[in-house]
Please model this.
Amino acid sequence: MKRVVALGFFDGVHLGHGALLRRTVERAGALGAVAAACTFDAHPAALIAHTPVPLLTTPADRALLMEELYGVEEVVVAPFDQAMRTMAWDRFVTDYLADGLNACHLVAGHDYRFGYQGAGTAERLQALCARLGLGCDIIPPVRVEGRIVSSTLIRDLVERGEVEAARRFLGHPYLIRGRVGHGRRLGSRLGFPTVNLPLPSGLLLPAFGVYAAQVRLESGAAYPAAANIGRRPTVEADGAVTAEAFLLDFDGDLYGREIRLELYRRLRPERRFDSLEALKAAVLENARQTRAYFAAEA
Model:
């Protein structure tokens, strides 16, 4: 089966990526091909420059968002290993995309760089596709509020806890997905049972604090939640970083189930309280603020 392939790392699957993915789906429909996207299992900069790049999304979450939001049918997660790292830019097109993925049309962003030492550019890609008889679209930058949408910009916003601003560039709330683990059940004893979500390795940590959030279950049902990202200094001397959410209007057991935590607004920084009663009062106030936030959004 022929494929129309969108090219990029797609971290966060933001509105700039969305322009590529929409064009990919359109071209695939016109050509009777599969709408596909090609990403990598690790950020190239982390391996080439040996500089860790904290990511907005795991490969699985990238695939989920591309399929869910833009209708991409297939996401290829290529290993960024030694062979891929040293592959010449033109061989990436001819051997990997055209021969390996049976690509008949490629879609890339204006600043797309690929191949060994980043020798491949959008201009070179377009010229090579013309020689090979492949279709090729180069997508111009997407601007929101006068700024070019980029994963770098969004990482900076999330790291500062500015998730409302990040959502305007992402086109969707910043999310963390995983399986609910066991906690100390302190919240239950205080009257506000919480779910504990381990944070995936390598994922960008939002600024510590409490967020107006939404927890979405595998069934699609969604519940407002007051979520804390941080080390829980009131109850842990040197705790690990966790995501902990108090679901409003929910009664049930979520242990072991996969959930999606979506962050909408940072309500306050994380802090240490002098007593559990003070902590409880703060959490109940954050729950009230969360209700008010979503009521205003409705």
The mean pLDDT is 91. The chain has ten helices and 13 strands. The radius of gyration is 21 Å. The chain has two domains: 3-148, 173-297.
